[in-house]
């Protein structure tokens, strides 16, 4: 039988058995606090410090242009039927998913620019633009618009909140500006992944997607 007296102090009758305090609940050592201020509990930081910077937005806007050009170039080699074929993605086809990205970019960008009711002038559509050449021109202009927005940003411009109302105008939405800027690029990457997979299935060859390979 194990000799517990060898590993724990003797207790008087009726004395409560002390339970060890997990290390993650123990107070931080003062020396550690001075060396690692980033791990002090409840340390308040600005959203722009904790999430993204203006330079991040400029990097991702360049990546956005590069990747959209890659996908559009690959899709350009397909027939109209192949671009509109239902391939089982969320928006079904390459063309519809590209249109979704085009209009979603417009809506999110307008919110970031201070337009609280962007859906009054921007109508999301999976079928418009329907002409492929028109889409290519509009996509290029949208990418330029995103890069121009990012080029003008300073870190302080990402402080504060973004406020907008959905199409029906019934609900006021308020989110940190850094979150909305990150959403712009995260949303693009999500749906471009779907398009990339559909293009690959159609035997088209987009460029690599690695951020480290950005020209």
Which features would summarize this protein structure in a list?
disordered N terminus, 4% strand, two-stranded antiparallel ribbon, 2 strands, 7 helices, globular, mainly alpha, 215 residues
Account of the 3D structure:
It is a single chain. The chain is mainly alpha-helical and 215 residues long. It has helices at 30-35, 47-50, 54-76, 80-84, 94-112, 132-151, 177-201, and strands at 161-164, 173-176. A two-stranded antiparallel ribbon has the order 1-2. A hairpin with an 8-residue loop joins strand 1 (161-164) and strand 2 (173-176).
Tally of DSSP β-strands: 2
* Contiguous uncertain segments of 5+ residues: 1-49
Outline type:
globular
Helicity range? 40-55%
Taken as a percent bin, the fraction of beta residues is under 5%
Taken in chain order, the helices and strands follow as HHHHHHEEH
Rg for CA atoms: 26 Å
SS element count, helices = 7
Pairing-aware structural class of the strands and helices?
mainly alpha
Mean pLDDT equals 84
Brief account:
With 215 residues, the chain is mainly α. It has helices at 30-35, 47-50, 54-76, 80-84, 94-112, 132-151, 177-201, and strands at residues 161-164, 173-176.
